[in-house]
Write a sequence for this structure.
Protein backbone atom coordinates (compact mmCIF):
# COMPACT_ATOMS: atom_id res chain seq x y z
CA UNK A 1 0.00 0.00 0.00
CA UNK A 2 1.43 3.37 -1.03
CA UNK A 3 1.99 5.74 1.89
CA UNK A 4 1.02 9.41 1.61
CA UNK A 5 1.87 12.20 4.02
CA UNK A 6 -0.68 15.02 4.01
CA UNK A 7 -0.09 18.50 5.44
CA UNK A 8 -3.15 20.74 5.75
CA UNK A 9 -6.47 19.26 6.89
CA UNK A 10 -8.73 22.28 6.36
CA UNK A 11 -11.97 22.79 4.43
CA UNK A 12 -10.38 21.36 1.28
CA UNK A 13 -7.72 19.09 2.74
CA UNK A 14 -9.91 17.04 5.03
CA UNK A 15 -12.26 15.66 2.32
CA UNK A 16 -9.27 15.12 0.02
CA UNK A 17 -7.70 12.96 2.74
CA UNK A 18 -10.95 11.01 3.07
CA UNK A 19 -11.01 10.31 -0.66
CA UNK A 20 -7.39 9.17 -0.64
CA UNK A 21 -8.20 6.69 2.11
CA UNK A 22 -11.30 5.49 0.27
CA UNK A 23 -9.05 4.75 -2.71
CA UNK A 24 -6.82 2.55 -0.57
CA UNK A 25 -3.94 4.86 0.27
CA UNK A 26 -2.31 4.77 3.69
CA UNK A 27 -2.47 8.41 4.83
CA UNK A 28 -0.43 10.08 7.58
CA UNK A 29 -1.53 13.55 8.64
CA UNK A 30 0.22 16.44 10.36
CA UNK A 31 -1.98 19.04 12.02
CA UNK A 32 -1.18 21.72 14.57
CA UNK A 33 -4.36 20.84 16.47
CA UNK A 34 -4.95 17.09 16.72
CA UNK A 35 -8.51 17.59 17.97
CA UNK A 36 -9.51 19.06 14.59
CA UNK A 37 -8.74 15.80 12.79
CA UNK A 38 -10.15 13.27 15.27
CA UNK A 39 -12.79 12.27 12.72
CA UNK A 40 -10.04 11.43 10.21
CA UNK A 41 -8.20 9.36 12.80
CA UNK A 42 -11.36 7.36 13.50
CA UNK A 43 -11.56 6.69 9.74
CA UNK A 44 -8.00 5.33 9.64
CA UNK A 45 -5.64 8.27 9.13
CA UNK A 46 -2.47 8.30 11.25
CA UNK A 47 -1.58 11.44 13.20
CA UNK A 48 1.97 12.76 13.59
CA UNK A 49 2.92 15.68 15.87
CA UNK A 50 5.66 17.00 13.55
CA UNK A 51 6.07 17.42 9.82
CA UNK A 52 9.29 15.41 9.90
CA UNK A 53 7.62 12.39 11.49
CA UNK A 54 4.67 12.66 9.12
CA UNK A 55 6.67 12.66 5.87
CA UNK A 56 9.93 10.82 6.49
CA UNK A 57 8.77 7.36 5.37
CA UNK A 58 6.23 8.41 2.73
CA UNK A 59 6.21 7.66 -0.98
CA UNK A 60 4.35 10.87 -1.74
CA UNK A 61 3.74 14.04 0.26
CA UNK A 62 0.83 16.38 -0.40
CA UNK A 63 0.51 19.90 1.00
CA UNK A 64 -2.76 21.87 1.05
CA UNK A 65 -2.16 24.88 3.27
CA UNK A 66 -3.50 28.43 3.27
CA UNK A 67 -1.06 31.08 2.12
CA UNK A 68 2.30 31.36 0.31
CA UNK A 69 4.02 31.98 3.66
CA UNK A 70 2.60 28.66 4.89
CA UNK A 71 3.96 26.88 1.82
CA UNK A 72 7.40 28.34 2.39
CA UNK A 73 7.23 27.39 6.07
CA UNK A 74 6.41 23.71 5.51
CA UNK A 75 8.96 23.30 2.71
CA UNK A 76 11.85 25.46 3.92
CA UNK A 77 11.68 26.22 7.68
CA UNK A 78 13.29 24.07 10.38
CA UNK A 79 11.96 20.50 10.32
CA UNK A 80 10.72 21.06 6.78
CA UNK A 81 9.54 18.64 4.12
CA UNK A 82 12.53 18.96 1.80
CA UNK A 83 14.99 18.03 4.52
CA UNK A 84 12.85 15.25 5.98
CA UNK A 85 11.69 13.07 3.07
CA UNK A 86 13.67 10.20 1.60
CA UNK A 87 15.29 10.48 -1.84
CA UNK A 88 12.86 9.72 -4.66
CA UNK A 89 9.80 11.00 -2.82
CA UNK A 90 7.12 12.82 -4.82
CA UNK A 91 6.24 16.18 -3.24
CA UNK A 92 2.97 17.65 -4.47
CA UNK A 93 1.92 21.13 -3.42
CA UNK A 94 -1.82 21.53 -4.05
CA UNK A 95 -2.02 24.94 -2.39
CA UNK A 96 -2.77 27.91 -4.62
CA UNK A 97 0.44 29.87 -4.24
CA UNK A 98 2.97 31.95 -6.15
CA UNK A 99 4.38 30.27 -9.27
CA UNK A 100 7.77 31.52 -8.11
CA UNK A 101 7.49 29.46 -4.92
CA UNK A 102 6.52 26.39 -6.96
CA UNK A 103 9.59 26.88 -9.14
CA UNK A 104 11.77 27.23 -6.03
CA UNK A 105 10.40 24.00 -4.54
CA UNK A 106 11.00 22.22 -7.85
CA UNK A 107 14.59 23.42 -8.10
CA UNK A 108 15.44 22.61 -4.48
CA UNK A 109 13.72 19.24 -4.82
CA UNK A 110 15.80 18.36 -7.88
CA UNK A 111 18.98 18.94 -5.91
CA UNK A 112 17.80 16.35 -3.38
CA UNK A 113 16.60 13.76 -5.89
CA UNK A 114 12.93 14.56 -5.29
CA UNK A 115 10.02 14.80 -7.73
CA UNK A 116 8.19 18.11 -7.24
CA UNK A 117 4.82 19.02 -8.72
CA UNK A 118 2.60 22.06 -8.28
CA UNK A 119 -1.01 20.88 -8.50
CA UNK A 120 -3.54 23.51 -7.36
CA UNK A 121 -7.19 22.58 -7.63
CA UNK A 122 -10.50 24.15 -8.51
CA UNK A 123 -13.98 22.93 -7.69
CA UNK A 124 -14.37 24.20 -4.14
CA UNK A 125 -15.33 22.30 -1.04
CA UNK A 126 -18.11 20.49 -2.91
CA UNK A 127 -15.64 19.15 -5.46
CA UNK A 128 -13.27 18.15 -2.67
CA UNK A 129 -16.03 16.18 -0.91
CA UNK A 130 -17.27 14.50 -4.08
CA UNK A 131 -13.78 13.78 -5.41
CA UNK A 132 -14.53 15.74 -8.59
CA UNK A 133 -11.85 18.44 -8.37
CA UNK A 134 -10.10 19.83 -11.41
CA UNK A 135 -6.37 19.41 -10.81
CA UNK A 136 -3.90 21.67 -12.64
CA UNK A 137 -0.42 20.19 -12.66
CA UNK A 138 3.02 21.66 -13.35
CA UNK A 139 6.39 19.91 -13.24
CA UNK A 140 8.03 17.09 -15.17
CA UNK A 141 5.54 15.15 -17.27
CA UNK A 142 6.84 11.74 -16.18
CA UNK A 143 6.29 12.76 -12.55
CA UNK A 144 2.77 13.88 -13.40
CA UNK A 145 2.06 10.52 -15.01
CA UNK A 146 3.43 8.66 -11.98
CA UNK A 147 1.01 10.53 -9.73
CA UNK A 148 -2.17 10.10 -11.79
CA UNK A 149 -3.58 7.34 -9.48
CA UNK A 150 -3.24 9.74 -6.53
CA UNK A 151 -4.86 12.59 -8.46
CA UNK A 152 -7.71 10.34 -9.58
CA UNK A 153 -8.56 9.67 -5.94
CA UNK A 154 -9.34 13.38 -5.53
CA UNK A 155 -10.41 14.66 -8.92
CA UNK A 156 -11.94 13.87 -12.29
CA UNK A 157 -10.51 16.59 -14.54
CA UNK A 158 -6.75 16.13 -14.30
CA UNK A 159 -4.51 17.98 -16.75
CA UNK A 160 -0.79 18.49 -17.23
CA UNK A 161 -0.08 22.20 -17.79
CA UNK A 162 3.68 22.22 -18.41
CA UNK A 163 6.89 22.96 -16.53
CA UNK A 164 7.08 23.79 -12.82
CA UNK A 165 4.85 26.75 -11.94
CA UNK A 166 2.47 26.12 -14.86
CA UNK A 167 -0.17 24.60 -12.62
CA UNK A 168 -0.19 27.79 -10.58
CA UNK A 169 -0.40 29.96 -13.70
CA UNK A 170 -3.44 27.98 -14.86
CA UNK A 171 -5.01 28.45 -11.43
CA UNK A 172 -4.45 32.19 -11.71
CA UNK A 173 -6.34 32.17 -15.02
CA UNK A 174 -9.13 30.28 -13.27
CA UNK A 175 -9.29 32.80 -10.44
CA UNK A 176 -9.36 35.73 -12.87
CA UNK A 177 -12.35 34.14 -14.62
CA UNK A 178 -14.12 33.64 -11.29
CA UNK A 179 -13.47 37.24 -10.23
CA UNK A 180 -15.14 38.62 -13.33
CA UNK A 181 -18.01 36.15 -13.35
CA UNK A 182 -18.94 36.39 -9.67
CA UNK A 183 -18.80 40.18 -9.71
CA UNK A 184 -21.13 40.07 -12.73
CA UNK A 185 -23.55 37.84 -10.82
CA UNK A 186 -23.56 40.24 -7.86
CA UNK A 187 -24.05 43.29 -10.05
CA UNK A 188 -26.90 41.61 -11.92
CA UNK A 189 -28.64 40.64 -8.68
CA UNK A 190 -28.23 44.21 -7.39
CA UNK A 191 -29.74 45.56 -10.61
CA UNK A 192 -32.69 43.16 -10.60
CA UNK A 193 -33.46 43.94 -6.95
CA UNK A 194 -33.34 47.69 -7.63
CA UNK A 195 -35.89 47.23 -10.43
CA UNK A 196 -38.26 45.33 -8.17
CA UNK A 197 -38.06 41.97 -9.93
CA UNK A 198 -38.86 38.67 -8.25
CA UNK A 199 -35.42 37.27 -7.66
CA UNK A 200 -36.29 33.59 -7.68
CA UNK A 201 -37.92 34.08 -11.09
CA UNK A 202 -34.90 36.00 -12.35
CA UNK A 203 -32.46 33.26 -11.35
CA UNK A 204 -34.65 30.55 -12.86
CA UNK A 205 -34.96 32.55 -16.07
CA UNK A 206 -31.31 33.35 -16.70
CA UNK A 207 -29.57 30.27 -15.31
CA UNK A 208 -30.12 28.17 -18.44
CA UNK A 209 -29.50 30.96 -20.93
CA UNK A 210 -26.37 32.68 -22.19
CA UNK A 211 -25.77 34.22 -18.76
CA UNK A 212 -25.68 30.85 -17.02
CA UNK A 213 -22.46 30.07 -15.16
CA UNK A 214 -20.99 27.84 -12.49
CA UNK A 215 -20.77 30.83 -10.16
CA UNK A 216 -24.46 31.57 -10.62
CA UNK A 217 -25.35 27.93 -10.00
CA UNK A 218 -23.22 27.74 -6.86
CA UNK A 219 -24.00 31.08 -5.32
CA UNK A 220 -27.18 32.61 -6.75
CA UNK A 221 -29.53 31.04 -4.21
CA UNK A 222 -27.02 31.49 -1.39
CA UNK A 223 -26.78 35.21 -2.12
CA UNK A 224 -30.56 35.56 -2.04
CA UNK A 225 -30.66 33.65 1.27
CA UNK A 226 -27.80 35.75 2.69
CA UNK A 227 -25.91 32.51 3.23
CA UNK A 228 -22.24 33.44 3.41
CA UNK A 229 -20.92 30.16 4.78
CA UNK A 230 -17.49 29.65 3.21
CA UNK A 231 -16.80 27.02 0.62
CA UNK A 232 -13.84 29.24 -0.21
CA UNK A 233 -12.78 32.08 2.08
CA UNK A 234 -12.66 35.70 0.94
CA UNK A 235 -9.22 36.00 2.56
CA UNK A 236 -7.91 33.17 0.36
CA UNK A 237 -9.46 34.65 -2.77
CA UNK A 238 -7.83 38.01 -2.01
CA UNK A 239 -4.50 36.18 -1.71
CA UNK A 240 -5.04 34.49 -5.09
CA UNK A 241 -6.05 37.69 -6.87
CA UNK A 242 -3.00 39.50 -5.50
CA UNK A 243 -0.75 36.77 -6.90
CA UNK A 244 -2.56 36.99 -10.25
CA UNK A 245 -2.15 40.76 -10.31
CA UNK A 246 1.57 40.53 -9.57
CA UNK A 247 2.03 37.95 -12.32
CA UNK A 248 -0.01 40.00 -14.80
CA UNK A 249 2.13 43.06 -14.04
CA UNK A 250 5.28 41.00 -14.70
CA UNK A 251 3.83 40.26 -18.16
CA UNK A 252 2.86 43.93 -18.69
CA UNK A 253 -0.85 43.10 -18.72
CA UNK A 254 -3.48 45.61 -17.61
CA UNK A 255 -6.26 43.46 -16.11
CA UNK A 256 -8.74 46.11 -15.02
CA UNK A 257 -11.56 43.76 -14.02
CA UNK A 258 -9.21 41.78 -11.78
CA UNK A 259 -7.91 44.98 -10.17
CA UNK A 260 -11.42 46.31 -9.55
CA UNK A 261 -12.79 43.09 -8.07
CA UNK A 262 -9.72 42.74 -5.86
CA UNK A 263 -10.28 46.25 -4.49
CA UNK A 264 -13.89 45.37 -3.65
CA UNK A 265 -12.86 42.24 -1.81
CA UNK A 266 -10.10 44.10 0.03
CA UNK A 267 -12.72 46.55 1.33
CA UNK A 268 -14.78 43.63 2.62
CA UNK A 269 -11.71 42.04 4.20
CA UNK A 270 -10.97 45.36 5.96
CA UNK A 271 -14.52 45.17 7.34
CA UNK A 272 -13.67 41.77 8.89
CA UNK A 273 -15.44 39.70 6.25
CA UNK A 274 -12.36 37.68 5.35
CA UNK A 275 -13.71 34.46 6.85
CA UNK A 276 -16.93 34.62 4.84
CA UNK A 277 -17.41 32.82 1.53
CA UNK A 278 -16.66 34.55 -1.77
CA UNK A 279 -20.40 35.01 -2.45
CA UNK A 280 -20.35 37.66 0.29
CA UNK A 281 -19.09 40.02 -2.42
CA UNK A 282 -22.78 41.02 -2.65
CA UNK A 283 -22.22 42.91 0.61
CA UNK A 284 -20.06 45.40 -1.27
CA UNK A 285 -23.00 46.25 -3.52
CA UNK A 286 -25.44 46.37 -0.62
CA UNK A 287 -23.22 48.95 1.10
CA UNK A 288 -23.13 50.93 -2.12
CA UNK A 289 -26.94 50.75 -2.39
CA UNK A 290 -27.40 51.97 1.17
CA UNK A 291 -25.04 54.87 0.49
Amino acid sequence: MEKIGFIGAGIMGKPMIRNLMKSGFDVSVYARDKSKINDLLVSGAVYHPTIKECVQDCDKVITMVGFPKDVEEVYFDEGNILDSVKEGTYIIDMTTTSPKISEKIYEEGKKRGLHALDAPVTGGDIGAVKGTLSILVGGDKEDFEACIPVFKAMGTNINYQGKAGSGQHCKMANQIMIAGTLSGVCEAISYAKAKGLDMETVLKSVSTGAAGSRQLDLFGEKILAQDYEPGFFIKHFVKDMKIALIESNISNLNLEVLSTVLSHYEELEAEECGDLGTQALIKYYEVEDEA
Remarks:
- The chain has a mean pLDDT of 96.
- Strands lie at 3-7, 26-30, 46-48, 60-63, 90-93, 115-118, 121-122, 133-138, 155-162.
- The two ends are 60 Å apart (CA to CA).
